From TrEMBL:
Protein name, as recorded: TonB-dependent receptor
Superkingdom, taxonomy of origin: Bacteria
CDD domains (alphabetical): ligand_gated_channel
Keywords: Cell outer membrane, Ion transport, Iron, Iron transport, Membrane, Receptor, Signal, TonB box, Transmembrane, Transmembrane beta strand, Transport
Alphabetical list of InterPro entries matching this protein: Beta-barrel_TonB, Beta-barrel_TonB_sf, Plug_dom, TonB-dep_rcpt-like
Subcellular location: Cell outer membrane
Topology in membrane: Multi-pass membrane protein
Domain TonB-dependent receptor-like beta-barrel: 268-691
Originating organism: Pseudoalteromonas aurantia
Amino acid sequence: MYSWLPKVSLLLVTSLVPLAVFSADDIKGNKKNDETDFEKIIVVGSKMNQAVQEAPVSVTVFDRTMIDKAGMMTLRDIDDYAPNVSISQIGQVGGSYISIRGIESNPFIVNRTAVYVDGIPYRDPDMLRLHNVNQIEILRGPQGTLYGSNANAGIIVISTKTPYQELESSFGLSVNSFEHGQSYTVNGSVSGGVTEDLTAIVNVEFEQGDSYVRNISSSINEEGEINNIAVSSRFRYHPSDNSQLDFIVFYNKLDAPGLYEQEFPAVDVDLYNQTYGATFNGGQLIGDFEFANEAQKNTTEEEWGGAVALQHDFDELTFNLTASYRNEDELSYGTDFDLTAMPVSSGGTQRDNRYWNVEARLSKLEQSGGSWLIGTALSKEKKSRQLYSLIGTGGFDDYAKASLQHLEPQSWALFTQSIWPITDNLNLTTGLRYEHSKHKITQEAGVLDMGEIGQFTFPELSREATSDAWVPKIALDYTFDNDVMLYTSASKGFLPGGYNLVAADKGPEIANRYGNYDDEELWSYELGAKSEIFNGKAFISAALFYIEAASWQEYSVLTDGEGRIISTVLVSSDAAIESTGFEIELNAQVTEKLNIIAGLGYVDASYSQYQFSATEDFSGNDVKMVPEYDISLSASYDLSDHWYARVDMQALGETPLHQDNSVTREEQLILGLSAGYQAEHWSVRLYAKNLTNERYASGLAYKNFLLGDDGNDYAPLANPRVIGVDFDWQF
């Protein structure tokens, strides 16, 4: 179904001319004046103090009003409204992996989209909450000049609320109901002046409830529960009129009894019940949002850290210094290798990660004339991993521990970017970054018993690799007399190479074969435009792009002849991809009461080279987890001065769930409805997400890890229909 959508999309983009930037600034239903608000939106992610209309890059901006009325609770919600942005997941409490324009991210490489919150980088942003967020920006295309590696696809920049002298406080409550349970979220914040020169804000959020996919065969009688707490505080100190100093601290904790970080329900429920209902599952039959795993499951995660940011304004120059530290500890039990209720074998993972980042830059950012910045950045990480296994029955204390594995990436960089006006209407943007990376790996020798899968051998390893990268960017933009801005750009992206943490049934042999992998490099070319139309009552933007990666890091999981896994994940760099497509976005105040936000994205991404194994060549296949198209439409109508109604629609094109393209997610149409009342100091909203209760995969699909190819596929699921109500009170 919906096979006509790509053709209509192509016709639409050719009739609108190549275009490229959109903003979801105003969704309140308030009539816009001729003096538009779009000029006031500053793209923080560009670091060049540019308004959204001036930045020669495809960018989507969500403000606080959009975040509230769309019900964006976590980072996973934003891809419903941003074309050519797809966020996959490996479980309700597992990682989130962001793909933009066919540049796919997955749990076994890294996020190729960098996420920054108030200057703090998050390589694994699965615990981020959005209740205290003021603005979200999505910049498409490589942003390596300013942000370094892990920005091949683009970046997401999140800015939280700034504390001011006036005392403010808020309270929020959300209650959700779905097929197998309920959940609720409580949040609150207090902000105001502490002294004449010091302001502060404190945010607290607590979430408790059932998981939306339930385990009906839990050996510990826990079908799945989620408990989240997030606390953050931001202090702003003004030692002088020209200086400000921000201190940020945060703490997040997750406790999920009955859940492993990765969950893989059967894609075909009827086939699974026919295969295992009577033989392995004791007559138990799973439903659409259920699975049957005997493994003892529990996931806990703690994350804490802080940052300091200094800004000092000289006569014509501005100096910025940001330093951050983030600590992340995770322990997750219960990957069920046979994916049934039989107590055969299961596994777990413990991770301890530390991140340090420092950036300093000096800039001259003028409203007219040339602008420039120069800077330096330092980054260091310490990661350790330990795999667990349990054969047969037992408790959490019975899991055997494998050898310790350590990774220590670090880098330093020098970068610069400038904007030079060639004429009153024509600007040239140039950027260049030099980055030196070092990657160290150590692994202790050992053996982990995986039961019927075999024994995974850990060879002793101690290796280092270094790489150097030059990352350029160039863009031209021209603004016509009717305020239409046309731009074109070319930019490079990169990821440093490294070494694999190897565990396999033939450890030393596999380690020699898959030991190291090379740097990843890609080039992105973009042509776009943006403009206000209808006397400032609408803003339209779009872009055409072509991306080529001649050296692409991909992963392999070795399997035997029956499809059973015989190794952990192994990264290689001998693949290549090409991605071509476009996106269009529109924000229109159709009438005084009706506001419409629409987005359309189309991507043709394929592996131009991908020798997966000695017998499997995936060259020519579509890139996994990239929808062929995505269309979003949101309409908000003011019924009165206080009442409003809203409808949200998202259509997703066919999506391959594995590199071999043997399993795909069909086209999906996801609907949402909401209605609310907005008073001066309080609001209430009733909403429904996934109204038709569509069941669809939200992450990579695999065969049965232990039993091999049983004719089925297994993949994490997106949320079912959710009915909820939220209440907010500001005082």
